[in-house]
Amino acid sequence: MAELLSSGFDPVAFHARFRPQAIACVDLASGASYTYRRLCADADACARSLVERLGNAHGARIAVVSRNSALLAVITLACDRAGAIFVPLNWRLTATELAVLLKDSEPGLILRQEEFATTVEEAAELAGCTALRLSPEDVARPSERGESGENDAAGLTPAAFEGPSILLYTSGTTGRPKGVIITRWNALFSALNFVAVAKLTPDSVLLCDSPMFHTVGLIAITRSALFHGACVLISDRFVPSKSIARLSDPGLGITHYFVVPQMIEALLADPSFAAADLSRMTALFSGGGPLSPNLVLQCQRRGVLLVNGFGMSEVGSAMHMPLDADYMATNAHSVGFAAPFIEFMLADPDGKAVARGETGEILVRGPSVSPGYWRQEEATRASRSGDWFRSGDLARQQADGSYVIVDRLKDMYISGGENVYPAEVEAVLREAPGVADAAVVGIADERWGEVGCAFVQAAQPGAPDEQAIRNHCQGRLARFKQPAYIRFVDALPRTGSGKVRKDLLRKQFQSS
After folding, report:
1. Pairwise CA distance, residues 301 & 451, whole Å
2. With 60 as the cut, is the pLDDT of residue 210 above it?
3. Euclidean distance between the first and final Cα of the chain, in Å?
4. pTM of the entire predicted model
5. Which domains does the chain have, with CATH numbers?
6. Is the pLDDT reported for residue 381 higher than 80?
7. What would the mean pLDDT of 405-428 be, rounded to a whole number?
């Protein structure tokens, strides 16, 4: 099918011609509203600006450090049209962490929101790059002068449909970040998968509180809406009371909202939730962690369906629960069924399929699956089993065909919807004063889902100073990565081959 689509294939340009006055997106922070005609024109203007600045934008990485905004939607579409690669970076990271990503991606242009100027400028200096202020005037140079609704592709070389379009960074288990390559083909089919499972229509209205440096905010929400001709309302941050007011506002008419479990808990705990009118909602869509039956039932009592799903940067939207209240009420532990354009197999350590009901690693293949990691051939090879992508997650399939996530093969844990990889934290801890070695495990937490506990081995007799270790982490790790607990041990328990026994460390924490 890919060969039937030219590199100029552009769903937003189609909607700009077919329904030019329909609202594509609204920037809730500024109030700016974009029709499909305006969005298409601004994306063209931005694409031309990129070409003017870079000479040849094809293959160039455009790094962006910014909270959510409609301008990010403009830039990612412009990168496709100019043949550039969109690299949205986590604005929560420290300058040291950002510098690592900048050195890896080697962007031709870094755009930063004013709020993060100091951090980004420091990171850019460490990486030997230059950063520019992110604003419509400095970047996109949009114009409303007589747009016809047609995108003017003359002089632009769009990204190849199966070439890199987006890099989404996720930390590796070795501590080295990995840039997940997303092609235009991947993004399209990931969006189509979400459109199918979420019952999205051109009349749908989606609220995007999820950060657009994640696959959920950028692709599942924003691109799904824009590719399907729907409307996305882009919020620059999650504030429970504001989100509740927006979900209740009949003038906004929001039908779809994506959350992580901690966001649901925050919404339910807010005093304004009791009077919220969520009757227009198709559902609240959750991911990033298990849902408790209590959360599901609390939402259903308020007349809104809360459903879970499974996905990741490398595969996009992959599994989802049916939009059925009765099924969800009795299967809150499940993540549902495979999306239409993706295939799953649960495999044993030898790569052979396990029987239904048995636990196996989730293997995935389909057009939404990433071709690999940016400049990391070894990591790409390790992530494959033949033509299957290895997720690193363990699951079992129920009698009706739905899936239940059992555990993670890797040590990664999720804190407040953010993936935390212990190896990265451990590397920082080992550089702290008085620390010889360290191991980090994820610990269940009522507020954040999971938090880190660091087990620290002293370099010399006597425990290191805990506050000094915390101070050391603050300048090197984002807040969500910093361990909530620090425990001092004489030695880390290890296997005969030298691997840390993290199962024993978890038991030690539970018994302490």
Report:
1. 30
2. yes
3. 57
4. 0.83
5. 2-151+159-397 (3.40.50.12780), 413-511 (3.30.300.30)
6. yes
7. 82
